[in-house]
Amino acid sequence: MFNRIYDWIDDRMDITPIWRDVADHEVPEHVNPAYHFSAFVYCFGGLTFFIVLIQILSGMFLTMYYVPDIVNAWNSVYYLQHDVAAGLIVRGMHHWGASLVVVMMFLHTLRVFFTGAYKAPRELNWVVGVLLFATILGLAFTGYLLPWDMKALFATKVGLDIAGSVPFIGDWIQTLLAGDDTIIGAQTLTRFFAIHVFFLPAALFVLMAIHFIMIRRQGIAGPL
Amino acid sequence: MSQKVTRRQFLNYSLMGVGSFMAAGMILPMGRMALDPLFQDDSEGSMITTSVTVDEITEEPMQVDFTFEQEDAWYTSEVTDFAWVYRDGNEIIAFSPVCKHLGCTVTWAADDNNPERFFCPCHNGLYEKNGENVPGTPPTGPLDQFEVGESDGFLTIGQVFPNELV
């Protein structure tokens, strides 16, 4: 049944080469944990991607209940966590996943560094990886404010002060992030929300696409 | 059962099984969360006491306001609604003012040409005094009724139910 539907579409669209090209590639022995168990360190990049997928999905569902408004943000989070079935689980996935992405991404970076996989001809992929690192940290920082509780507020105060300590343009950056030069309030929350769910994810998708296209183009780096 | 499962098939099935299990672990909580409005209990509304005494109600439909606390997820507010109330013998009738065409608000005797009917200004819908929709006008059914009661001489209003007078 499923096969016949697939064949019917494939006859017309010739889709097999498309997914073959994406999915069908050799995994070298030195990165396959089935051969050398220590090769699990090569899984960190894929795990980062997997958790990013969970973050995107759980985030999409959280926005069904969340409102980025100083009066209602905390209440809507409380509601989705306590009164919506499975809301606690979905928020939990997003909460713990957020930390896990950073951890996995850091381990991935360490693996690339210590195996020297960033060396020529893969320097550009390292650069894109560093941009991805910044994007993920930006997502973690902007997401922290959204529940609008005391921890969120003071963490953001600290973060904005750090941004403000940049020489010469620090004050401008701080005002641009907070939406006001003294208040951390209504405009800060909507800004952080917009950055968290639209701007940074857009950057993330583009950078991830480049990251993956480059690794397919250049192949996996050889063994040590 | 005599057919042998090849190593490749076995691996395929195991991997797809484990993969489906993991995917379900992700998708199920999210799906359940999204579908939550379908599974929320209908709130059992209590009777709301109005500021109108039962004695005041005449055979002429009058507008009776009532206010109640509406819990809308994380937002609780005072909502004011009203009913068209009149006396029919010993019975008190209360109609919801929501037009059965497209949900505008009907008014008693608002149309000069139909002084004894409910009138909806949006598309000129008309209802008789017992709530029956006048044929040839847009509404497709009679006006809904409210449960009514009495508390210390004051009119109380409850849930909406389909018209039982027509």
From TrEMBL, chain A:
Subcellular location: Cell membrane
One Pfam family hit: Cytochrome_B
Alphabetized InterPro entries for the sequence: Cyt_b/b6_N, Cytb/b6-like_sf, Di-haem_cyt_TM
Cofactor dependence: heme b; heme c
GO cellular component terms given for this protein: plasma membrane
Keyword Cell membrane annotated: yes
GO biological process: respiratory electron transport chain
Top-level taxonomic group: Bacteria
Primary location class: membrane
Keyword Iron recorded: yes
Topology in the lipid bilayer: Multi-pass membrane protein
Residues in Cytochrome b/b6 N-terminal region profile domain copies: 5-224
Signal sequence, start to end: none
GO molecular function: electron transfer activity; metal ion binding; oxidoreductase activity
Record field: transmembrane: 39-67, 96-114, 126-146, 193-215
Subunit structure and binding partners: The main subunits of the menaquinol:cytochrome c complex are a Rieske-type iron-sulfur protein (QcrA), a cytochrome b (QcrB) and a cytochrome c (QcrC).
NCBIfam families assigned: cytb_ExtP (NF040969), PRK03735.1 (NF002990)
Biological function: Component of the menaquinol:cytochrome c reductase complex.
Protein name: Menaquinol:cytochrome c reductase cytochrome b subunit
Organism expressing this protein natively: Lacicoccus qingdaonensis
Organismal lineage: Bacteria, Bacillati, Bacillota, Bacilli, Bacillales
UniProtKB/TrEMBL annotation, chain B:
Keyword Iron: yes
InterPro entries membership: Rieske_2Fe-2S, Rieske_2Fe-2S_sf, Rieske_Fe-S_prot, TAT_signal
Coiled coil: none
Pfam families listed in its UniProt record: Rieske (PF00355)
Residues covered by the Rieske domain: 82-157
PROSITE patterns: RIESKE, TAT
Transmembrane segments: 12-31
Gene3D superfamilies, per the entry: Rieske [2Fe-2S] iron-sulphur domain
Superkingdom classification of source: Bacteria
MF-aspect GO terms: 2 iron, 2 sulfur cluster binding; metal ion binding; monooxygenase activity; oxidoreductase activity, acting on paired donors, with incorporation or reduction of molecular oxygen
Key words, A-Z: 2Fe-2S, Disulfide bond, Electron transport, Iron, Iron-sulfur, Membrane, Metal-binding, Oxidoreductase, Transmembrane, Transmembrane helix, Transport
Function: Component of the menaquinol:cytochrome c reductase complex. The Rieske protein is a high potential 2Fe-2S protein.
PANTHER family per UniProt: CYTOCHROME B-C1 COMPLEX SUBUNIT RIESKE, MITOCHONDRIAL
Protein family according to the UniProt entry: Belongs to the Rieske iron-sulfur protein family.
Assembly information from the UniProt record: The main subunits of the menaquinol:cytochrome c complex are a Rieske-type iron-sulfur protein (QcrA), a cytochrome b (QcrB) and a cytochrome c (QcrC).
Protein name stated in the entry: Menaquinol:cytochrome c reductase iron-sulfur subunit
Species annotation: Lacicoccus qingdaonensis
